[in-house]
Amino acid sequence: MSPTPFSSPSVALNTGLQMPVLGLGTYKLCDPEDVHRAVDAALSAGYRAFDSAAVYRNEADLGKALRELLPKYGLTRKDVFITSKLGPKDQGEKAMEGALHSLSQLDLEYIDLYLIHWPGTQGLAVADERNPGNRAQSWASLEELHGQGKLRAIGVSNYTPAHMRELMQSCKVPPAVLQVEFHPRLCQPELRSLCKESGVCFQAYSSLGKGELLTDPVVLEVAENCKRTPAQVLLRWAVQQGIPVLPKSSNPDRILQNAEVFDFSLSDTDISRLSALDCGHRFCWDPSGVA
Questions:
Q1: Distance from first CA to last CA of the chain, Å, rounded?
Q2: How many whole angstroms separate alpha carbon 63 and alpha carbon 65?
Q3: So where does substrate get bound (predicted)?
Q4: 71: β partners
């Protein structure tokens, strides 16, 4: 068993589950060999959380890689935290079927965290008034599976403040996690405040801004001052604010580097300088028009 170079802290979700602060994002990891290599590198580096989705089309490969690799590191299913997400094509009346398909693909008895991936429905216009009803139907299905223990925690991704308020008013089980794009150019203060008030864990994706933030002059200067990589600085900026991150990479060296964010701190000045880059810029999709 390889020694792990770090011990990832975890955050307590409102279900009582502990979720690691650092997870491996698997978006665009489509080849079974790439998935296997990335999972191997991540487990070796100490990652214990893995984030997939129905639309990534790699749930089966991720499940297989974990089954093959966990014994190599002396680990069992209970030692890892698996997240997946309901595809927009299954929003609404197909949500139960979609979630059970994710379970089947991953070949798991339960998924630790299952999210509604997008507030809209595939095939409907963003302004279509059926979207809210479909979201509510999806959430009811997730609540049912949560009650059965098949989804240990449930949450949402890419929801706006309006979507979150709508959900909080109608749900029987509150969302455990909101996963959204978050980096120094998109600080999402209203969503963060709403999550804090509601006891929802705010989780970041696209922490590196699809790689574009790695060459930002402020990021580069902070990285040079603390003798770290720009990626480590961007991840540390979120982690130091108590926000879990999901860096994605298929490169074993980068996977290891991205894990090395728990043995240094940014100064308050550095945090402020990076946060001052906020201009509301999205590198990914914008959910604000979804009815």
A1: 50
A2: 6
A3: 117
A4: none
Give the SS3 label for residue 157. Answer: strand
Closest CA to 56 of 33, 81, 25: 25
Question: What phi, psi does 44 have (nearest 5°)?
Answer: -65, -35
Are 230 and 224 a contacting pair, CB within 8 Å?
no
* Beta strands in the chain, from DSSP E residues, in sequence order: 10-12, 18-20, 24-25, 49-51, 81-86, 111-116, 151-157, 177-181, 201-205
101 is in an annotated binding site: no
Beta bridge partners of 81: 49
Per-residue pLDDT for the chain (291 aa), expressed as one digit of tens each?
344 456 679 999 999 999 999 999 999 998 999 999 999 999 999 999 999 999 999 999 999 999 999 999 999 999 999 999 999 999 999 999 999 999 999 999 999 999 999 999 999 999 999 999 999 999 999 999 999 999 999 999 999 999 999 999 999 999 999 999 999 999 999 999 999 999 999 999 999 999 999 999 999 999 999 999 999 999 999 999 999 999 999 999 999 999 999 999 999 999 999 999 999 999 999 999 999
Determine the longest span between alpha carbons in the chain, in angstroms: 53
CATH of 10-211+243-248, one of 3.40.50.300, 3.20.20.100, 3.40.190.10, 3.90.550.10: 3.20.20.100
23, HSE (Cβ side, Cα atoms, 13 Å): 30
SS3 52: coil
Q: Report helix, strand or coil for 91.
A: coil
Residues 6+ apart with CB under 8 A from 268: none
Backbone angles phi, psi at 124, to 5 degrees: -105, 150
Rounded to two decimals, the pTM is: 0.96
Strands 81-86 and 10-12, sheet pairing: unpaired
Contacts of 269 (CB under 8 A, 6+ apart): none
